[in-house]
Amino acid sequence: MTPLTGNLRINPDRLWQSIMDMAKIGPGVAGGNNRQTLTDADGEGRRLFQNWCEAAGCTMGVDQVGTMFATRAGSDPAALPVFVGSHLDTQPTGGKYDGVLGVLGALEIVRTLNECGMTTRRPIVVTNWTNEEGTRFAPAMLASGVFAGVHDLEWALDRCDAEGARFGDELERIGWKGDEQVGSRRMAAFFELHIEQGPILETEKVDIGVVTHGQGLSWTEVTIIGRDAHTGSTPMSMRRNAGLGMAHVLQLVDEIALDHQPDAVGAAGHIDVYPNSRNVIPGKVVFTIDFRSPQKHVITDMVNRLKVGGREICDRLGLEIEFASVGGFDPVEFDHGCVNAVRKAAERLGYSHRNIVSGAGHDACWINRVAPAAMVMCPCVDGLSHNEAEEISPQWAAAGVNVLLHAVVETAGIVGKTGESIAS
Questions:
Q1: Is the pLDDT of residue 423 over 90?
Q2: By the 8 A CB rule, do 310 and 251 touch?
C-alpha cells in the first residue's frame, strides 16, 4: 500500500461552498435551517446530494428507511467498504453544520481522491442516515438504529409525527423509500465527522476532538405528590409543597453529577407542574432526570442515588415520590483501531487534538454495534448547536475533513498514485 503524507488535503473552498449551497434548501428564519426529516425540503436536499455524488462518479443505493449510500469503487470488489457520513436532516430551528458537515465532508473525500487520481483497495461509501435528529419522528437515530438491529423495520415505518403523518408514508411521498434491505450492507469500518455541540474544543483552542466514547443515557421520570393549597392562606408549617420537593431533588441531581466528574452530567429537561396556577401551591410535579456518563456503572450509581436521596427528601417534607425509567441506552466505547486512525491522522497533519467524549447521540453510536466505528469532532462557536445561530469557521471544517480523509483512506488503503498537495 502507498503510505500517506501530510500533503494530501481537501479543497476547503469547495467544501465550504457545498455547505452553503445545501443551506439554501430548507432555510430557517434566523440564518439556520429547518430541513426536518421526510419534508419536501429534505427531499430536495437529498436530490442535490445525489446529483453531487453521481457527478463524482459514485453509484447511489437507498434502503427501505431512506438511508442513502453513495459508493466509490475500490480496486478489490470483494473487500468490505469503508463507510463515512452523517445526516442531512435538521432540527426545526437547526444550524447549517450539524450533521451536514459530516455528509458533505465525506463527499469531499471522494472529490479529493478523484482529483488526485487515487484508487483505494476498499470501496468508500458516503452515507446520509435518515432521521438522525428524531425531532419529527421519535426516536432519534432511527434509521441507523434499524440498520444495527436496535429497532424493528415495521415499528420504525409506523412512527407518527405530531400531526399523525406516518414515517413510511412520508418516505414514499417524497420519493425516497428504497428497495434495499436495511442492514444488509457489511462494513469494514464507519467514520463520522460532527461539530462538537459543546464548548470544550473552542475553549481549549484545540483543532480536533478524537472521540473515544459516546455517553450512555438514563431518563428517569419522577412524580412527586403533595397537596394543592392556597398560597396566601396556608401556613408554611402546614404545606405539602410538591414544588419544594422538586427543588430539593434538582439540587440533589446537580450534586450527584458533580461527584462523578469530569464527564458525568445531569439535569431535568422536562418539567410539568400541577395545577400550575399563580396562587396555588403545587400538589403534583412530574419531571424527567437526564443522567449521562461514558461509564455504565456511573449511570447506575447516579440513578440509585437519585432514588435513595429523593425518598429521603420527600419523607422529610411529607410528600410521596415515584420513579419510572422512561428511556436510555448504554455508553459506547468506539473501536480502538478506528480511534487510533483518527489520532494518527491529526498527528500526521499537524493539528492539535485531544480525546473527547460525545455528549450527544450520533448514528456512529448505533453502527458501533455492528462494525468498527469512530468519530471526529471539530469546534463550534460557544458550543452552540440545535440553534440557528450555530457557527463554525471554514478552517475548523477543513481541519475536521482533512483528518476524516486520512483516517478513511488509511483504513481503505491506497493502491494508486499519491499525487501532489491539494489546495489548502
A1: no
A2: no
